[in-house]
Amino acid sequence: MECARLIVPLDYQDPDNGLEAIIPIVKYPTNATGANYKGAVLTNPGGPGYLGTEFIYNPGISSLIANNVTGPGYDILGFDIRGVGYSVPYGSCNITADELFDPLRQNATEGNSFTKRNTRRLKSGIAIPAGAKETETSPYGFFIPELPPSFLGQAAAQADDFIAQCIAYTGADNQAGPHMNTVVTATDMLWIARALARARGQNDTNALVHFYGISYGTVLGQTFATLYPNHVGKFVLDGVVNMDGWQTRTETDIVRNADEGFFEFFKRCFAAGPKKCAFATGMCYQDTINRFNRMMSRFNATEAEVQGSGLALPLTALIAQLRSTILDSLYASIDSWEGLAWIFNALDKATRGPILRWNVTEITTIITTPLSPPSSSSRAPAPLQLRGYSFFQTACGDAPSIYNYSVTPVEVYTYLKASAISGHARLIGRVTCSRYSIRPKWEWSEKIGGKTKTPILFFGNTLDPVTPWDDAVRAAQKFPGAEAVVVDLIAHSTFAQRNTCAVKKLIAYFQQGKLPGANFKCAEELRPFS
C-alpha cells in the first residue's frame, strides 16, 4: 500500500482565499508497467461517510476490486471525501464518541480567517402530525410493530442535538460543514487525476478519471460526469441512486424493493427447511410469515407508551435495531439469511414470556448478532467509521434547503407506507434535513446527465433494498452511450456477490472498453440457504 495527501482549495468558488483542504489517498498498486499499465481507478464505497482510505487499505477488498472489478493493470485508489475520515478539515459533530476527532483537524490548514458561525435558532421537537397514523403492515403480509407516536419528536430532538454540535464544530466558513456537498468532492476527484498525470510526467489538461462507485459513489459519479464530461474515463456506477430524489431529499421511491426482498426471505426460508433455515415452520411459507408476525406482535411500543409502563423506550430501541438488522441482511442475502433465521429463532424463544420478564440485554445481544462470519468470501468487510451524521452533512447540502420546513401528515403516511422496513428511516432523514441550517458555499443542484467522453456502465440488482434496478436503467438513459446491466440478486450492489456474469462484464469494460449491450441481464447464480 502507498499513502499520500493532496492539498486542494477549501473553497473552489474562492480558491485564492488562502484556505486549503487535505485529501488523504491510499493506493493499492499494480505490478504492471509500460504498455500493460492502464491507469488508476478511484473508488468510493458509499455512505456518504464510509472511509475510502480504509476501504482500499483492507487487502481483501482492494484485491477483490483488482481481481473481480477492474482486472490487471490498474492502480486502485481510495480517498476520504470532504469532512470524513482523515481529511482536513474534519467534519466531526460528536467529539466525545469519535475516535478520529482531533481539534487541530477541525479547521482548514491556512490560518483561521473566517470565524463567524451560523447561530440560527433550532426548532423545538415535533410529533407525528394529527391524522398521520403510522402503520407498519407490509402489502407482502409481514408485520413490523408501530413505533410510538413520540418517535418522530424523539428523532427531531436527536437531530437538534446533532445539528447544534455540527454548527459548533463544523459550521464556520473555514471548517468542513460548508464544503461537504458532493460537487466539492467531485472536483477533488479531478484534482486527484490531474496530480496523478503530473506525477507521471503527463499533461494534466485532459486527465481522465477512472472510477468505481458504489451506492453514494454513484451520486458522486453522476455528479462528476455531469460537471466534467470530458474527463470521464472508465466509469462503473454500481447500486445506482436516483438523482431526482437525492437532489430534492424526497426518497420514498428508493425503498420500494425492500419489503419484496424481505418477502423472499420467508419463501426461501420455508423452501430450504429447518436444517438450513432455523426459522422455517409449518406447511407453507405463509406459516413462516405467521410465526414472524406472532413474534413481532409482542413488541408493542405504542401500547406501552399509552399505558405509561416505562417499556416504550426500550421497545422502540429494539424495534429500530431489528429493522436495521433486517435491512442489513438485504444488503447481502446470500451470506446473511442463515444468520437472520438464527436471530429470529432465538428472538422468538426469548420473547415468549411476559414482557416484564424479558431480558432486554439478552434480546439486544440476539438482535445484534453478526449476520455472517467475518471470513465470508461473498460479504465484503464494512469500511471503518460510517458516521451517521456524515450522511446528513453531505445529503442535506446536495439539495435545496428545507430548513424550518414542517413535514405534513401526507408525507409521514407516504414515507411509512413506502416500506415497513425502512420507510421510517427515510422519514427521519427528511426531518433531519428540515433542521439542518448549514448551507454549502458552492450550491449546486443542476440537472444530471449529458454526453461523456467514455460511455458509463451502470449496474443494478433486481431486489436491491435501497437502490432499485430500474434507477440504473434510468440513469443510463441520461448519459448518451451509457448502458446498464441488471443482475438477479437480493443485495445492495453487485460488489462481492460473486455473480460471475457481472464480474465478466465489469472486467470486459475496464480491460477492453467493451459494453454488454443495452439493458443486459445477468441471471441469479448463488442463492441464499444454498
Automatic annotation (TrEMBL):
Domain Peptidase S33 tripeptidyl aminopeptidase-like C-terminal: start-end pairs: 423-522
Record carries keyword Hydrolase: yes
Residue ranges of every copy of the AB hydrolase-1 domain listed in the record: 40-267
Organism superkingdom: Eukaryota
Signal peptide: none
SUPFAM superfamilies according to UniProt: alpha/beta-Hydrolases
Keyword entries, A-Z: Hydrolase
Short name of one Pfam family: Abhydrolase_4
Transit peptide is among the record's keywords: no
InterPro entries, sorted: AB_hydrolase_1, AB_hydrolase_fold, Pept_S33_TAP-like_C, Serine_prot/Carboxylest_S33
GO molecular function: hydrolase activity
Family: Belongs to the peptidase S33 family.
Protein name per the record: Peptidase S33 tripeptidyl aminopeptidase-like C-terminal domain-containing protein
Annotated organism of origin: Orbilia oligospora
